[in-house]
Amino acid sequence: MNPIRQLMPSGYRFISQFRLSICSTVPRCLSTRISFVLTSEPVLQPRQQQTASQLRFYTTSKPKSGKLPPVGHTVFGLFPRTFPDGPPPAGRFKFDTVLLKSELDDLLTKSASSRSKEFTPTTSIEPPTLSNTDPDLLQLSYTLLLDPIKRATYILHLRGIEVKDDTAEVAEEEFNVAMKGPIGPEGQEVEDIVDEAEEKLLGEMYELDEKVDKVGSTEEALHLINENMHKLEAMEHELDHLFKEDKLEEIQKIVRLGRHRERIVRELMTMSGKYGKK
């Protein structure tokens, strides 16, 4: 899968028959976060597909490794009240979500007002840019910024860094290689090229998959969902600290683990539905 595609906000089709039961088992503060995780592949209308294509690269200038493009060339530039200093490290990673929603509403109102005006020969036609956009692009940008994992992935993309794709389950062979080192043709271990941090990351992913394999009831699935949602909430605080320190390598590992936790939650939601039908 194209790593840039992973940045795209999903279609947010909730698994409605289970949403109420899930939300009733977790604190209210997690309900918004659940909305971002319990998704499937995007289902976009033709106009939205065109807008999604515009947002695919999220910037009007080519990212250069380690250097941020001008704020006005990114989705942060769409919401100057919420992000006056742009993305980290100059700006903040955590932000006021209420302020962002208010700014979005104001922009959508202005957009609707401008679209309702009758076109005249004297009306200026501005080229499509991230600062002069349509409602669909505003909504997609808003959705992207609300999700901490997608937001972090996007910021890394602006720095010219594409995060490794860990969407599939961590294979047992990969885990063993990380923990023990590759095995040579004679059965001897060869030099282990996986660093300690990578070993720890793959180990956590593998343990998560093992926990899912052991789930045998709706109650167990809900408990594991709750556990992962709390972990995802904690990740936002950790990412905020790491972006202030500009520790990009550590941020990448947290993003990878966060993606894996989100995939686990989606899988558990499907499993809880199957158990509920029995």
Task: Write a brief caption for the model.
This protein is mainly α and 278 residues long. The chain has helices spanning 16-23, 31-37, 46-55, 97-116, 135-146, 148-158, 172-180, 196-213, 218-245, 248-276. One of its GO terms (cellular component) is mitochondrion.
Describe this structure in words.
The chain has ten helices and no strands. By secondary structure, it is mostly helical. Among the domains are: 67-115 and 130-146, no CATH class; 202-277, Monooxygenase (Up-down Bundle). Helix 3 (46-55) crosses helix 5 (135-146), helix 8 runs parallel beside helix 10 and helix 9 (218-245) packs antiparallel against helix 10. The model is unreliable at 1-54, 118-128 and 169-193 (pLDDT under 50).
| CATH topological fold name of one domain | Monooxygenase
SS content category: mainly alpha
Q: What order do the SSEs take from the amino end to the carboxyl end, as H and E?
A: HHHHHHHHHH
Q: Whole-Å distance between the termini?
A: 34 Å
* Distinct helical segment count: 10
Radius of gyration: 21 Å
Q: Given the C-alpha coordinates, what overall shape results?
A: globular
Regions with little confidence, pLDDT below 50 for 5+ residues: 1-54, 118-128, 169-193
- Summarize model confidence as the mean pLDDT: 70
Give the fraction of residues assigned to helices: 40-55%
How is the main sheet built? none
Based on DSSP secondary structure assignment, what is the total number of beta strands?
0
The CATH architecture name of one domain reads Up-down Bundle
For the record, the CATH class of one domain is Mainly Alpha
